[in-house]
Amino acid sequence: xxxxxxxxxxxxxxxxxxxxxxxxxxxxxxxxxxxxxxxxxxxxxxxxxxxxxxxxxxxxxxxxxxxxxxxxxxxxxxxxxxxxxxxxxxxxxxxxxxxxxxxxxxxxxxxxxxxxxxxxxxxxxxxxxxxx
Length: 132
Hints:
Number of strands: 3
Order of helices and strands: HHHEEE
Largest sheet: 3 strands, antiparallel
Number of helices: 3
Strand order of the largest sheet: 1-2-3
Number of domains: 1
């Protein structure tokens, strides 16, 4: 009477519904983990796009006849085309006689409730000039 079948039957009757409880606990945690992984992907992709936009702006502002306005326009156009996940963005270009600095700021769209992901990328480059 106390063979393997009786022991298995006693254990099974005492654990009824445990699979449902485990499922209810683990599924939200797995969904949250998946959202965190996707959020990091969105953040790093948006950071790469913002960095590329800052480089585009710096390249247009640093050329011999370039201006800060041309750099701002190039960076903004690149962001318009590629940065759908960057909200409240701002492009600032500073050009002096020797250097140009482009800063792209904004906030990455959040998939996780009550989370904020600010983004700030700065690129600097020397200004082209004729040396005699």
